[in-house]
Design a protein that fits this description.
With 132 residues, the chain is an alpha+beta fold. The protein has helices at residues 5-44, 51-54, 78-83, 102-130, and strands at 56-63, 66-73, 84-89, 92-98. A hairpin with a 2-residue loop joins β1 (56-63) and β2. The longest helix has 40 residues, at 5-44.
């Protein structure tokens, strides 16, 4: 069983191209996951005036080879809706409102589906580069 040296050169060139494309692949998947997460968290956000629902944002941070998706809401009461809060009347706590956990539930779902989204995109790029 033998091989042609030209095949090894082609394989090397393909691996170099795949390495160069890895940044593009990771960023593309991170954006897709972030946009999907925003849609999901907005659906789970309760509506009163719509301000809370409309203020969900994302930011993608690259540190080394790691991409982190930050999903946030700048409204000061967003954490109260997320985690729950006390009901205070005349300085006395009279009850508790359970949290909606819209961000936590969205994060859990994204943690579950993101690896498969990444895998599909890498395989698609590998088929493009290596053929088949």
């Amino acid at each position: 069983m033998g091989f042609e040296f030209s095949e090894m050169k082609l394989m090397k060139q393909n691996l170099i191209e795949l390495n160069k494309m890895s940044h593009v692949i990771h960023l593309k998947v991170a954006k897709r996951v972030a946009q999907l997460a925003i849609r999901k968290v907005k659906k789970m956000t309760p509506i009163d005036t719509g301000d809370l629902r409309n203020n969900w944002k994302y930011h993608i941070v690259k540190k080394g080879d790691t991409y982190t998706i930050l999903i946030y809401n700048q409204l000061n009461y967003a954490s109260w809706i997320e985690n729950g809060h006390r009901i205070v009347i005349a300085g006395k706590t009279v009850g508790w409102v359970e949290g909606k956990f819209m961000l936590k539930l969205t994060k859990d779902e994204m943690d579950r589906i993101a690896p498969n989204m990444w895998k599909i995109e890498v395989e698609k790029e590998m088929r493009r580069i290596f053929g088949s």
